[in-house]
């Protein structure tokens, strides 16, 4: 129990620091955008490279990984079906909402929880790898596609007549933008290193580890600074979108993880690990991604705040029932 409270308290303190800095304007009005760009283009790719490079890829074939994949996929598909299919949200906003519902804080709170509550950091690897290798590439492909299409439209308008470039050119631009995405480059580079039949000297990981260590705290500081924006000028998330995302993240996801794990025969600590990881709050990196693409910032910010508050009671209940 204390591990959950300690991890959440640490996150809360860093978020509070960001709020104070934002409230006082210590770093200037453009600081949140600059910090978000640093996290997105430098710190997070370094962290992902080192994390994936040291991961045991055999975990991708375990029953725990399968249970995580099933529950996460169902949550993501549900979010897309409602946000995009039913409520007709724009593709980019629906993508950010889907990430907010399915992308958990595995690298920060999840790692602390796995170490202090479960006694082994390996529990965080399946959800982390699934997010990096499946969710992130798909989400960034959609976001880059919308960004590329918007850029093409803005440069091909000629008076009242819009000249749309060939589909092949748009597709090529999307592939190039996706391949250059720092998050995907970091994750795939780490995967390539993990697949090598030999181990690289640890000294080579030193610079990446040092820079990557800044990813989580900077993301939390950025999150806190976004909360300090004046209420009159701060964009508000659509209420029903927020309710949907929070329900999927805090209630539906752990329930589906428990069901999938039980059907796959998981018991004891293995089942606890899967369900606890599924109950983690929305990752603050989702807000960083939203700020990077300029879409869905309010939903990412509010979902991160609400699910983080709800994470403590949810994890305490799960620990009491399955621990």
Describe this structure as you would to a colleague:
- This protein is mainly alpha-helical.
- It has one domain (2-322): Na+/H+ antiporter like fold (Up-down Bundle), CATH 1.20.1530.
- The chain has 14 helices and two strands, in the order ααααααββαααααααα.
- It has helices at 2-24, 31-53, 63-86, 91-102, 106-116, 125-156, 167-179, 182-194, 206-212, 215-227, 239-263, 268-278, 285-293, 297-322, and strands spanning 157-158, 161-162.
- The chain has a two-stranded antiparallel sheet.
- A hairpin with a 2-residue loop joins strand 1 (157-158) and strand 2 (161-162).
- Helix 1 crosses helix 10 (215-227).
- The mean pLDDT is 84.
What labels describe this entry?
323 residues; 14 helices; 2 strands; 75% helix; membrane; cell membrane
Terminal Cα span:
10 Å
Largest sheet features: 2 strands, antiparallel
Helix share of residues?
over 70%
Backbone structural class: mainly alpha
Supply the number of helical segments. 14
CATH topology: Na+/H+ antiporter like fold
Strand order in the largest sheet = 1-2
Q: Report strand %.
A: under 5%
Order of H and E elements: HHHHHHEEHHHHHHHH
Number of strands: 2
Q: What best-fitting shape do the alpha-carbon axes yield? A: globular
Summarize the entry for a quick read.
This protein is mainly α and 323 residues long. It has 14 helices and two strands. The protein is globular.
Topology, please?
Blueprint: H1 2-24, H2 31-53, H3 63-86, H4 91-102, H5 106-116, H6 125-156, E1 157-158, E2 161-162, H7 167-179, H8 182-194, H9 206-212, H10 215-227, H11 239-263, H12 268-278, H13 285-293, H14 297-322
Helix pairs in contact: 1-5, 1-10, 2-8, 2-9, 2-10, 2-13, 3-4, 3-11, 3-12, 4-6, 4-11, 4-14, 6-7, 6-8, 11-12, 11-14, 12-14, 13-14
């Amino acid at each position: 129990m204390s591990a959950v409270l300690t991890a959440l308290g640490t996150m809360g303190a860093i978020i509070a620091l960001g709020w104070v800095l934002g409230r006082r304007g210590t770093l200037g009005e453009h600081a949140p955008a600059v910090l978000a760009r640093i996290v997105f283009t430098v710190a997070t790719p370094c962290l992902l490279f080192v994390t994936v490079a040291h991961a045991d890829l055999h975990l991708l074939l375990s029953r725990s990984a399968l249970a995580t994949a099933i529950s996460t996929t169902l949550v993501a598909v549900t979010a897309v079906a409602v946000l995009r299919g039913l409520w007709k949200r724009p593709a980019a906003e629906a993508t950010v909402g889907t990430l907010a519902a399915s992308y958990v804080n595995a690298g920060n709170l999840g790692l602390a929880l796995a170490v202090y509550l479960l006694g082994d950091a390996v529990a965080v690897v399946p959800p982390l790898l699934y997010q990096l290798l499946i969710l992130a590439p798909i989400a960034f492909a959609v976001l880059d596609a919308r960004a590329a299409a918007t850029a093409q439209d803005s440069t091909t308008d000629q008076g009242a007549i819009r000249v749309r470039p060939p589909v092949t050119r748009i597709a090529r631009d999307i592939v190039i933008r996706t391949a250059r995405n720092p998050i995907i480059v970091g994750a795939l580079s780490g995967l390539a290193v993990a697949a090598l039949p030999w181990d690289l000297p640890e000294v080579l990981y030193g610079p990446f580890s040092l820079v990557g260590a800044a990813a989580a705290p900077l993301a939390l500081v950025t999150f806190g600074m976004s909360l300090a924006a004046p209420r009159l000028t701060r964009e508000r998330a659509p209420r029903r979108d927020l309710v949907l995302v929070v329900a999927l993240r805090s209630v539906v996801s752990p329930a589906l993880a428990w069901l999938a794990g039980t059907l796959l025969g998981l018991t004891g600590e293995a089942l606890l690990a899967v369900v606890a990881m599924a109950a983690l709050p929305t990752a603050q990196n989702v807000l960083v991604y939203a700020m990077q693409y300029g879409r869905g910032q309010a939903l990412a910010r509010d979902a991160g705040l609400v699910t983080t508050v709800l994470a403590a009671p949810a994890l305490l209940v799960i620990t009491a029932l399955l621990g």
